[in-house]
Amino acid sequence: MNIYDIAREAGVSIATISRVLNGSPKVKESTRTRIERILEKHHYSPSAFARGMVYGSMHTIGVLTVDVRDLYFGTVTHAIEQAFSRSGYTTVLCNTGGIPERQLHYLELLTTKKVDGIILVGSYFDNRELEEAIRHVAARIPVIMLNRDLQGDNIWSVVCDEAQGISACVAHLSALGHRDIIYIRDTTTFSAMRKLSGFRRGMESAGLENAEAAVIETGKGIEGGINGVLRAAELGVPFSAVVTGDDVCAAGVIKGLKKLGRIPGREVSVTGFNDSLLARSTDPELSSVNSRPEEMGETAVSILSRVLEGEDPPKITLVRPELVLRESTSPFTGKKE
User: Fold this and answer.
1) Residue 30 belongs to a domain with what CATH number?
2) Is Calcium included in the keywords of this UniProt record (predicted)?
3) Which of 330, 334, 170, 174 has the alpha carbon at shortest distance from 264?
4) How many separate domains does the chain show?
5) Does some domain include residue 150?
6) pLDDT of residue 333
7) Fewer Cβ neighbours under 10 Å: the N or C end of the chain?
8) Strand-pair partners of 157
9) Domain for residue 59, yes or no?
10) Mean per-residue pLDDT for 252-259?
């Protein structure tokens, strides 16, 4: 009989067993009594490994991300690795490519490796089979999700308020006199849906009625941004400002505007998202929402550390983004196409 068997028989998570063994007051008395009876029934004494699981001394954390080469995901995972390294933990990094089969494979692999906890970076963990797999893993190991709020025992989320960030872009552009604002949407993840919601809310708050007609669907990356703005022009959609959900897409929009003979930052304002290094490398430099990736990563580490110590932090922690203004946004000139 091991700690996993105890948790399974009691119908609780490893973290709850940890709290009981640590004497934490944050366990319902009825749950504590049930667990103690099971421990006594099986004459359970934690092995060295189980003590490691309970007291957080195995010092290995699994991190799943889509692609560490991505500017945003790379920044978040680096912050996680650095924070755990300072605490003496080893981080096992898995690149999934956003492919469900690989995500499931790595979840199973990390479970068999008996890591102390798992952090999932990004909102790509969004199909039903994967959600059930995450809940199954969380029955044994605490799971922290970044930018994805999944309900379940032993699952915590750190979420950037991306809707507010996009709404801030619309409010800024509206204050500059722009009325014909379009949104170029390059993904359909949960993150993308929150951003789209923020665009609609921002347009409504600004008294702009054409939010639905102003959404242009496109592909990812710089080519997606180029194609999105070219498609808007082809469809005859009037615009003097473009909001995007990603700096890379915004960089493509800037290139696309130049192809159309329109001057980005002067004739057409453009906003990005994530405030990555790319935002300071475009011409003009990009006004972009700082989604605080370092803070996201460090907050995830703090929450997981608290869980491993037997605490029960809030299920969802919200991180507030900030719009950073640069050269790509300016007052409406009166010219639109």
Assistant:
1) 1.10.260.40
2) no
3) 330
4) 3
5) yes
6) 86
7) N
8) 145, 316
9) yes
10) 98
- Pull the structure tokens for residue 116: 């102390």
Say how far apart CA 117 and CA 305 lie, in whole Å.
Answer: 9
pLDDT tens-place string over residues 132-170:
999 999 988 999 999 988 889 999 999 999 999 999 999
Verify that 155 and 269 share a domain, yes or no: no
Contact 237, 211 (CB under 8 A): no
**185 within a domain of the structure (yes/no):** yes
Rounded distance, CA 131 to CA 148, Å?
Answer: 11
8 Å CB contact between 171 and 202: yes
pTM: 0.79
Listed residue (33, 40, 45, 31) closest to 2, CA to CA = 45
Band (pLDDT 50/70/90 cuts) for residue 53 is low
* Sheet strands (E) in 197-315: 215-217, 241-244, 269-273, 287-290
C-alpha distances out from residue 249 to 229, 257, 258, 272, 309, Å: 10, 12, 14, 8, 41
Which tokens go with 125?
Answer: 């963990």
Same domain, 256 and 301: no
Reply yes or no: is the peptide bond before residue 100 cis, omega within 30 of 0.
no
**Residue 129 falls inside a structural domain:** yes
SS3 content of the chain, % helix, strand, coil (to 5): 45, 15, 35
**Pair (74, 174) in one structural domain:** no
Question: For residue 242, what is the domain's CATH number?
Answer: 3.40.50.2300
